[in-house]
Each structure stands twice: as structure tokens, then as C-alpha cells.
Design a protein that fits this description.
The protein is built from 20 helices and 17 strands. The chain has a five-stranded antiparallel β-sheet, sandwiched between helices. It has a five-stranded antiparallel β-sheet with strand order 8-7-13-12-11, sandwiched between helices. A three-stranded mixed β-sheet has the order 6-15-14. It is globular. The C terminus is likely disordered.
Length: 657
């Protein structure tokens, strides 16, 4: 039983996500008596009635005492409530099945806030504007927005329980150097350069392109003018891809509910799964049902490139390292049946999306820079993502710098710094005034000009300077006007709302070229994604090793042997109780290590039956020196957050990396 809720200070619901058990508990609580003949209130009204006392009491305590509760359990420990205030919005997570603790729920709230920032950018800075985005006046549009984020949360929960990369919040690479090199070359020549050299690109500039096989990164290429992409943003993009085109096998692994109530008339949100497993006309042998229970020797083969647009399919296989093709026909049949179960029908392309990612423009850091995301499916389970920027990108940098300046000024005013001469003489005010004058001069809107004039009158007047409260109000008005310009420039004109985008024929061109390049590799990639790293190569050096996960937080990447126990695909442990048992142990260790890391512990060793479990965290700089333990413990305890790329990790306060 679970619920996630976002509300305003006045208990207005901005977003909610519930599972069927929680909805059923609400029905029982609000169901009218048999004698009354009243209809059951809408789910949103039920949540508002249930949560209003909690929200109002929390905000009242914050206003009166400057402190409030952030976590509590109900009577008999039946439900766990976690609250977190982001700006003017209160995020609430409720769990009634005791499967998740406070840290898990709080992490999900941070991920939801992060997803809001990815979709709305700097609009999240202003409370009134983010309300308009999360709760549009039009009911149909509101349902579309809520269903989109509900679907993202379902997808995130499924991936977090089934994929190791989402469990530890790090990107997992598909390890095959030769194929990776081939894909990078193709992304450079046939995607990035092809788009940027096309006269039909309508001012859009291709920055990044990458290939994803299920949830694993195959290849990534950025143009020379692009800044690096953060691991957090890359993992968020993989989440968006998995939400658009869910991997059938991982969806079955989780045995989770489908995305709730998808809209049937949305142009930006997929209405239903983009494809369904294709039916096979022939009956499969009994050996095919046990495909993944066999531990076959590792043999890598490299198919020769196709001579033309279509692969002939004959004489194109070259076996490396002196290997020979398998002579056993049953093994060949097993491999073919494995591919048949992994390959559903062909997916359809989704509409481009406006997203906001961190970037550097002219060596200046700018968070939440607007990009356009094109998700081009090559085959089911294999997708290509293209990120472009529009000519209006420099405007985003200017708006961020102005908002950052006014936010710093607002902070100083709240801290009690006196207005008047001391404020006018501050170096920040001189630079901010110069930047804002230049910006307003180039804008034609009367509202921003009058708002800025009102602020200057109160901030720089020598005869009648405004008080700190008046300056705070004027500063808030200027920030709202800047956020409004940001919203009109990048959200109202998004591709899904009729804004500029790459022409369809150019999207089809790069999609077709990549399909031709990877035609001979697609079947291999689908199998490789489920058997990416095996334990065979490690057992000689580490006898008795059952499983490991190595995460490099400096790059945001991880390496781990494949771990799956579904009916369709499995790891070397097979798909019986042993695989499920080991998987449960690994996920339990991840949660336990997070709890101890939040307390400042960097080493964890314990015995669990016949298993020995360990967790190690160490820091390195250029000289590979470890920092003093106090540095690690202090940074962990100050943060009080779970480590990961989608939430603030614990390395920021420590000088070592």
C-alpha cells in the first residue's frame, strides 16, 4: 500500500500517485453508508480530505516554530509517512506494507522532484508557475500531465527493483569494445554530423546521441561544441526511454501493475505499450523453455558488415580466437528460440520532448538548459536517443544568471541584511543592475519593464528607500517575471506544443542509417544485454565469489555480473530459487549499506548464514590517496541523503574524489 502526493501550503493537490491497495483503503474509508445514497467522492477529493489536516498542521508548525515533523508512523505502526518541503510544495510519501523505510521513501520524493526539474526546468523555482504546469485548469490536460508522471514513477519503481543500475543509481555500460567503437563512429558520422550539416534542421543543433539496449548504455557520442552530460541526466534519459518503450522481460520480472490510466488522446505521452510480443506460429520444443538454464562457454563472434542495405545472412560470421561454430544442432535451436522470445514486434516512434539538463555554455555552468529529446526506436529493446538545442539557448543562460542573482539577493534580505546604502554598495547589486538593465532594454514586454522599474525605485532610491519586506516582495515579483519569460520561451513553444523540431524525414534518415549499421548485430545485442558481464572470468581469481557490484561515482558508472531470474531470461544462476535468493540478498545489502553510509560508515562486513557480505567506500584524488575518515563521516552525516546520481550524493563536501 503506497501513495506519493504533492500539495501546496493550502492543501491543494498538485499531483498524486497511488497503488490499487491504497485506493481500496480509501474506498473503504470514504464509502457512504447503505442508507445514504451518496456517490463515492473522486479520488483526488478523498486524498485532499485525508491529507488536509496533515498538510495544514505541518505548514503551521513551520510558520510558527520554524520547524516541523518530517517522518512519523501511525498507530500500531500501520503506515509510515515521510514529508519533504521543496520550495513552496510539500512532497508526501506513504507506505503501509513495511517494504520500504524512511530512506527509500525520501529518495523517491527526491527523484520525483528531479523529474519535475527535467520536465519544467527553472519554472520549478516559482511556486505559482509550477502549480500551473502540474495542475493545468483544463481537466483533460491535467490528466495527461498526472498520468505521465504516474507512469514515470511506476517505471522507476520497476527498474529500481529489477535493474542493478537503478538500484545503485549508476549507468551500466554494455561491454564490447569493437561494437562500441563501430557505434560511436556511426553516431558521429551518420547522426550528429548528418543532422548538423542538413539545411532542413531548422536551427536545431545536435549535441548528443547515444544507443541504449534495454537499460544498458551501448555507445555515446557528443559534438565538439557540446558540454559533458551528467550521469544523473543520462540515467534520467534512460528512465524516459524505458517509460516510452518498456523492456518486456524486465516488466515481467517485476510483476508490477501497468501504468495507470494512460490518456487516450495525448500526443506527447504513449497511449499504450508501443508494441506487443509477436506471436510465433511454430511450437517451441521443451528444450527452448529452459534456454537460460544452460551455462554455455563464452564465445564471441564478429559478423562481417553487410555488403548492401540488406544483410544476405550467409557467410557473414567470423569466429574469433580460433573458435568454431557449434556443431550441436540443439544448441543452435536453443539460441534461436532465445532470440525469438526476446524480439517482439517493431515499435513506433514517440513524439519529441522538451527536457532540461545541466550544461556549460561558453565555459559558464547553467543548470536546466533546454534540450529536445528524440527517442528513435531501432528495434524492440534497442533505442537511439538524440539531444538537440535550439537557437534560443543563450536566453536560458541569461535568465539563469539573473534568477541566481535575485535568489542570492533574496537570501541576504531574509537573513536580515539592512536595505538602503549597505545594499546599494554591495558588489552583487551593481552587477545585477547592469545585467538586468541590459536584459530589460532588449525585451519589449511592458510587464517586465514596470516590475524592474518598481524594484529599482525601492532598492536604489536615496530619498525613499524601501524596507526589507518591500524589497523582498519586489524581488519576488522580478523572479516571477523572469520565470514567466522562461516558461513562454521554452515550455509554451516545446515541440509537443507546436514548437520547432527536426523535420520527420531527417529523423527517419538517421534512424534508417543506424538500423543498417546494426542490422547484423541486433540479435547479438539483445542476448548480450542479458549476459553483459559473467562470473566465469572472475572465479579463477576470486573463488567462491557469488556476486559483486563496482560503482565509480566519479564517472557515475557501474560494473556487475548479470543478475536476472525471469522466466524468459536468466543469469548463470539459472531461474530457480537460487537466483531469486541471491538477488534478494544483493538488494538487501544495497539498502543496508545505504543506511550505514548515512551514519558515516564506509566499511561494512557481516555474515549471513553461509554468505559473507561486504561493502566498501573509498575516495581517491589524482595521487590515489584516501582522505581522513573524519572527512568522509562529516560529509555523510551533513548530507543525510542516500548516495546516487539522481539524488545528491555524499561526495560534495569532501575534497577527495
Amino acid at each position: 500500500m503506497k501513495c506519493i502526493l504533492v500539495a501546496t501550503e493550502g492543501a491543494e493537490i498538485l499531483f498524486y500517485w497511488t497503488d490499487e491497495e491504497f485506493e481500496e483503503s480509501l474506498r473503504l474509508k470514504f464509502s457512504p453508508s447503505e442508507n445514504e445514497g451518496e456517490e463515492l467522492p473522486a479520488l483526488e477529493d478523498q486524498l485532499s480530505t485525508l491529507m488536509a489536516p496533515l498538510i495544514i498542521s505541518s505548514m503551521t508548525m513551520l510558520e510558527k516554530l520554524s520547524d516541523t515533523y518530517t517522518c512519523f508512523s501511525t498507530e500500531n505502526d500501520s503506515c509510515l509517512y515521510v514529508l519533504h518541503l521543496f520550495g513552496e510544495c510539500l512532497f508526501i510519501a506513504i507506505s503501509g506494507d513495511h517494504t520500504e523505510g524512511e530512506g527509500d521513501l525520501r529518495q523517491q520524493l527526491r527523484v520525483l522532484k528531479y523529474l519535475f526539474e527535467v520536465h519544467f526546468g527553472l519554472v520549478t523555482v516559482d511556486g505559482q508557475l509550477i502549480r500551473k504546469e502540474l495542475r493545468p485548469p483544463d481537466l483533460e490536460q491535467r490528466i495527461q500531465v498526472w498520468e505521465h508522471f504516474q507512469s514515470l514513477l511506476w517505471t522507476y519503481s520497476r527498474l529500481r527493483e529489477q535493474e542493478q543500475c537503478f538500484a545503485v543509481e549508476a549507468v551500466e555500460r554494455l561491454i564490447h569494445p569493437q561494437l562500441c567503437e563501430l557505434c560511436i563512429e556511426a553516431l558521429e558520422q551518420h547522426v550528429i554530423q548528418a543532422v548538423n550539416s542538413s539545411p532542413a534542421r531548422a536551427g536545431e543543433e545536435a549535441l548528443h546521441a547515444f544507443l541504449v539496449v534495454h537499460s544498458k548504455l551501448l555507445a555515446f557520442y557528443s559534438s565538439h561544441s557540446a558540454s559533458s552530460l551528467r550521469p544523473a541526466d543520462l540515467l534520467a534519459l534512460i528512465l524516459l526511454v524505458q517509460d516510452l518503450y518498456p523492456s518486456e522481460s524486465t516488466a515481467e520480472d517485476g510483476n508490477t501493475q501497468p501504468s495507470p490510466r494512460r490518456s487516450w488522446n495525448s500526443q506527447n505521452i504513449p497511449l499504450q505499450p508501443a508494441w506487443s510480443p509477436c506471436s510465433s506460429g511454430r511450437a517451441r520444443s521443451s528444450a527452448a523453455t529452459e534456454t537460460d538454464s544452460f551455462s554455455l562457454p563464452e564465445e564471441y563472434f564478429t559478423p562481417a558488415p553487410s555488403p548492401g542495405e540488406q544483410s544476405s545472412g550467409s557467410g557473414s560470421t567470423i569466429w574469433l580466437d580460433g573458435g568454431t561454430p557449434p556443431s550441436d544442432a540443439s544448441l543452435v535451436q536453443i539460441a534461436e528460440d532465445t532470440l525469438q522470445t526476446l524480439i517482439p514486434g517493431f515499435p513506433t516512434a514517440a513524439s519529441p520532448q522538451r527536457i532540461f539538463l545541466d550544461a556549460s555554455v561558453k565555459e559558464t555552468y547553467c543548470p536546466m538548459m533546454p534540450h529536445t529529446m528524440y527517442c528513435l526506436p531501432l528495434w524492440p529493446g534497442i533505442n537511439m536517443v538524440l539531444l538537440t538545442k535550439s537557437p534560443s539557448t543563450p536566453l536560458a543562460l541569461v535568465l539563469y544568471q539573473l534568477l541566481d542573482g535575485f535568489s542570492l539577493l533574496e537570501k541576504k534580505l531574509k537573513e536580515g541584511q539592512e536595505a538602503g546604502s549597505s545594499l546599494r554598495s554591495h558588489p552583487l547589486m551593481g552587477d545585477l543592475r547592469q545585467r538586468m538593465d541590459k536584459f530589460v532594454k532588449n525585451r519589449r514586454g511592458q510587464e517586465i519593464q514596470s516590475t524592474w522599474l518598481e524594484f529599482k525605485t525601492k532598492a536604489f532610491s536615496r530619498t525613499e528607500p524601501g524596507s526589507s519586506l518591500e524589497l523582498l516582495q519586489a524581488c519576488g515579483k522580478v523572479k516571477r517575471q523572469l520565470c514567466t519569460i522562461y516558461r513562454l520561451s521554452f515550455l509554451t513553444t516545446a515541440p509537443g506544443r507546436g514548437g520547432p523540431q527536426l523535420p520527420q524525414h531527417l529523423q527517419d534518415q538517421v534512424q534508417t542509417l543506424m538500423q543498417e549499421k546494426l542490422m547484423d548485430w541486433k540479435d547479438f545485442l539483445l542476448v548480450k544485454s542479458r549476459r553483459n558481464v559473467t562470473m566465469v572470468s572472475y572465479l579463477e581469481d576470486f573463488p567462491g565469489l557469488v556476486h559483486f557490484i563496482y560503482v565509480d561515482r566519479t564517472t557515475g558508472q557501474m560494473v556487475a555480473p548479470s543478475l536476472s531470474s525471469s522466466e524468459r531470461t536468466s543469469s548463470e544462476l539459472g531461474k530457480g530459487p537460487l537466483a531469486a535468493f541471491v538477488k534478494t540478498k544483493v538488494w538487501s545489502l544495497i539498502r543496508l549499506a545505504r543506511r550505514y553510509l548515512q551514519k558515516g560508515y564506509t566499511t561494512l562486513l557481516f555474515q549471513d548464514g553461509d554468505f559473507y557480505c561486504s561493502y566498501f567506500l573509498w575516495f581517491q584524488n589524482e595521487m590515489t590517496l584516501s582522505p581522513p575518515p573524519s572527512c568522509v563521516k562529516d560529509s555523510c552525516c551533513r548530507s543525510r541523503q542516500s548516495p546516487g546520481v539522481q539524488t545528491t550524493d555524499n561526495r560534495g563536501a569532501c575534497p577527495f574524489r
